[in-house]
Please model this.
Amino acid sequence: MHGKSYIPTREADFVDWSGNLLAVARAHQQEWGLNGTHLTELEGLQAEVKALHETCRTSMYTKLDMQAKNEKKALLKKRLEVYVRNNLQNNDVMTDNGREALRIPIHDRNPTPRPAPDTAPETETETPLPRTLRIKFRGVAAPRWGKPEGVHGLECRWVVSDAPPESMAGLVNSDFATRSPLTLTFDEGARGRRLYFAVRWEGTSVQKGPWSEIFSTIIP
Model:
């Protein structure tokens, strides 16, 4: 069972689901390392909701019965959401078979790594201070500067040279940034010289995207 909306909305189904969850949790209390006192409190609240639900299905119920049922049901739902998240969903002792028995979502704990984008970053350079160069970056045609979703950061290779490098091998220095912009600072002797650089994305699992072309700019 997957997805966020795992708690039934139909009242009869909710009563059945909550009763089943607590019964299974009680049966595996020791195995899953669950707190018995906490379970007892939830079981008591669930029993009240179940009794009020049955009462309100008869012709003898009152407005006070209906109000009490709705309030108790809302409280039980809220407490069960917290209990499932804190004690069952992230319980390392439990198996997915246990979560199936509880009828709660099974989250993928080993998601498929997201590859880096198959396009090179767009860049723009700024020279806010002497000996300082900022390289802003973003995805192709993205509305704002920054890395795309699922990307760890930007790798930049560069060299200060009087002649353009013949290939990427000539970019002998490397820097990395997880936020835009990437800021490079230089010694006084580099002022007025030409910087050559290229950039690429690195994915969250260290996959690399393609390199950009080699750009150049003057160091202020």
